């Protein structure tokens, strides 16, 4: 019977249909926004709000630095830290409120009209600090922060986070003023020469290198370029300390502002100084805007990245959401890589000038 069937197929040239193709693989999402970190306020009942967090790798888990206060976005907020396990669970009894220098008395010596659009934040030493960015350098934490107008730094012990020194950082006089005068987004990193540096501005791209003299951080040199790093979805503002992308490159996650909406974007540098790629669409958009075709949005209009660590599958970004909660964003390396590969490289840094500090 089988033989007769085969002969019939041969005579009539009946060709059986091919087997159906396998289903296409399920695309990996560019990022997975599935974690809103809630801290246990029973340990810190006097300061129940926690937001704008910077995550750092620490031992087998993580250390999280964050802004905290009695109400969202108050003018007497503090910076605190807590330990997280490898699975992002809070380590019991690891909370610590940090002591960093802030003192609004300097405002009385300046032209008050410069600050009037943003309210009158008057406070005593240590009463108000915001938005930490933190890196490990030579066995210590170096924490940068703002009081809303000026930039500050604190050197902390690695295990107990005791403050060894803390002070304001003055903008070197040789750097041109920009924006509205508020110094909020200096991004710390350690360069290939083991210097503690801070990205002062992306437009023009300007980097300040510092020296730790054990009692303070002082300006050692300034790297100025003629490069203006721009993206298609808003002006680049502050972001996370750079994270390893591959053996030669680093990825910098930043936030932008466009028409009342914050977004998260990224660019890549070769080493730390030469920008080679900028993504041409957001990684995450706060609220929904017709201008964007991104795959991920959230209902809140402010997303504010402060820290990032590399993971097996990509990167984990810690961020503030509308100045009232902490979000953790898992970014997939494969899709970030494709976004950079499809983008025209940035040709820049043909001229870099290193100048002596002037403060």
Radius of gyration: 25 Å
Number of strands: 24
Order of helices and strands: HEEEEEEEEEEEEEEEEEEEEEEEHE
Derived from helix and strand composition plus strand pairing, the structural class reads mainly beta
Low-confidence stretches: 24-30, 109-119, 289-297, 347-359
Percent strand equals 35-45%
What separation lies between the terminal Cα atoms?
97 Å
Q: Could you give a short account of the major beta sheet?
A: 7 strands, mixed
Helix segment tally: 2
Shape: globular
What is the overall pLDDT average? 78
Q: What kind of oligomer do you see?
A: single chain
Helix-residue proportion: under 10%
Description:
The radius of gyration is 25 Å and the shape is globular. It contains 2 helices and 24 strands. Strands 14, 15, 16, 17, 18, 19 and 20 form a 7-stranded mixed sheet that branches. The protein has a 5-stranded antiparallel sheet with strand order 10-11-12-13-24, with no helix packed on it. The chain has 359 residues and is mostly beta strands. The protein has helices at 2-12, 333-341; strands at residues 31-37, 49-58, 61-69, 78-84, 96-97, 130-137, 140-146, 151-157, 163-169, 187-190, 196-202, 205-212, 217-225, 235-239, 243-244, 249-258, 261-270, 274-278, 284-286, 297-298, 303-310, 314-321, 325-332, 352-355. 6% of the residues lie in helices and 44% in strands.
